[in-house]
Automatic annotation (TrEMBL):
<protein>
    <submittedName>
        <fullName>Unannotated protein</fullName>
    </submittedName>
</protein>
<dbReference type="GO" id="GO:0045436">
    <property type="term" value="F:lycopene beta cyclase activity"/>
</dbReference>
<feature type="transmembrane region" description="Helical">
    <location>
        <begin position="31"/>
        <end position="50"/>
    </location>
</feature>
<feature type="domain" description="Lycopene cyclase">
    <location>
        <begin position="2"/>
        <end position="85"/>
    </location>
</feature>
<keyword id="KW-0125">Carotenoid biosynthesis</keyword>
<dbReference type="Pfam" id="PF18916">
    <property type="entry name" value="Lycopene_cyc"/>
</dbReference>
<dbReference type="GO" id="GO:0016120">
    <property type="term" value="P:carotene biosynthetic process"/>
</dbReference>
<dbReference type="GO" id="GO:0016020">
    <property type="term" value="C:membrane"/>
</dbReference>
<dbReference type="GO" id="GO:0016117">
    <property type="term" value="P:carotenoid biosynthetic process"/>
</dbReference>
<dbReference type="GO" id="GO:0016872">
    <property type="term" value="F:intramolecular lyase activity"/>
</dbReference>
<keyword id="KW-0812">Transmembrane</keyword>
<dbReference type="InterPro" id="IPR017825">
    <property type="entry name" value="Lycopene_cyclase_dom"/>
</dbReference>
<keyword id="KW-0413">Isomerase</keyword>
<comment type="pathway">
    <text>Carotenoid biosynthesis.</text>
</comment>
<keyword id="KW-0472">Membrane</keyword>
<feature type="transmembrane region" description="Helical">
    <location>
        <begin position="6"/>
        <end position="22"/>
    </location>
</feature>
<feature type="transmembrane region" description="Helical">
    <location>
        <begin position="76"/>
        <end position="95"/>
    </location>
</feature>
Length: 100
């Protein structure tokens, strides 16, 4: 399995978790997209620094080759999945805490 395929699966899992498992539907909220934009800025800077200095390298056969700020686009997919998954879980855990 390639890095691209795993990144796409990660995004799909995060979306399913958000919409169908926790039903928090963060993707429909402006606050999510605002906070994600801020996180994305820092992710791009960090990815650029790590990949442009060859601290982190990717085999060309494992990625599709599109790069943003020197990092493969797949990194943005993983970052998105991570932020969505963690935020959704944070809401879920907060809701279950209120019930106790």
């Amino acid at each position: 399995m390639t890095y691209t395929q795993i990144a796409i699966i990660a995004v799909a899992c995060a979306v399913i978790f958000d919409f169908y498992i926790t039903r928090s539907r963060l993707l429909r909220r402006r606050v999510f997209w605002t906070s994600y934009a801020i996180i994305l800025l820092f992710q791009l800077v960090t990815n650029w620094w790590l990949t442009s200095r060859n601290i982190v390298m990717y085999h060309p056969d494992a990625i599709i080759g599109i790069r943003i700020a020197s990092a493969p686009v797949e990194d943005l997919l993983f970052g998105f999945a991570l932020v969505l998954g963690i935020s959704t879980n944070w809401i879920r855990l907060g809701a279950s805490e209120k019930q106790h």
